[in-house]
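Incident review: delayed structure delivery

Summary: a single-chain prediction request sat in the queue longer than the usual turnaround. Root cause was a stuck worker, restarted by the on-call engineer. No data loss occurred. The affected request and its eventual output are reproduced below so the record is complete for anyone auditing the incident later.

Affected input:
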Amino acid sequence: MRQIVLDTETTGLEVEQQHRVIEIGCVEILNRRITGKTYHRYLNPERDIDEGAKAVHGLTREKLAKEPTFSQVHAEFLDFIRDTELIIHNAPFDVAFLNGEFTRIDTPHRLADLCRVLDTLALARQMHPGQRNNLDALCKRYSVDNSHRDYHGALLDARILAEVYLAMTGGQAMLVLSAESDGARSRARQSGPARAAIRIPLIRADETELAAHEHVLALLDKASGGKTVWRKL
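Output delivered after worker restart:
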């Protein structure tokens, strides 16, 4: 399954006030593995940037003056995200801004027509009701390193969100055992001294733990629109 973690930076907070997207960052996840493939563009908004927005992402109109406009990159952007599941934190914000850009260049595209969208903020609120669920809080909760996040940046935040999402929905992004390490372990077993057998106790989950596990599975099933595999097995 191909998923794209997406984040944007904008000139301000209100799409209704003709604020624009000035940065798009995307990170590809394939079968729950961060592949390293990304899409990243700075965009010329052709308008001023609010002071509050500058304080968040550090981008200015002058820095972006020579960047392409959204109309110049929208085709390559669509090629990257089409027919995927978009993973976005506070998805209504980014979706509204991107749809606003589509409208501005008079295209028929809307994100909902091109991709499925999963809002990790809504998912986090279901999993952790009554707690802070912004990206920094989730990084702390799931032990994701965000120490290099001095400013918000679309690609940086997408990379961090990819790690947070994988931790939220099942743990490790990838576990790779190389042939070399497997061989080394095999040789060690063959040549090493005999060791006494170790009895490992089996501790079964109690009713409370099983209920909590079932609750998390139900949340994931709901967030995926009933497409989770374990309900079908």
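Verification: Confidence is low (pLDDT under 50) at residues 171-197.
Action items: add queue-age alerting; document worker restart procedure.
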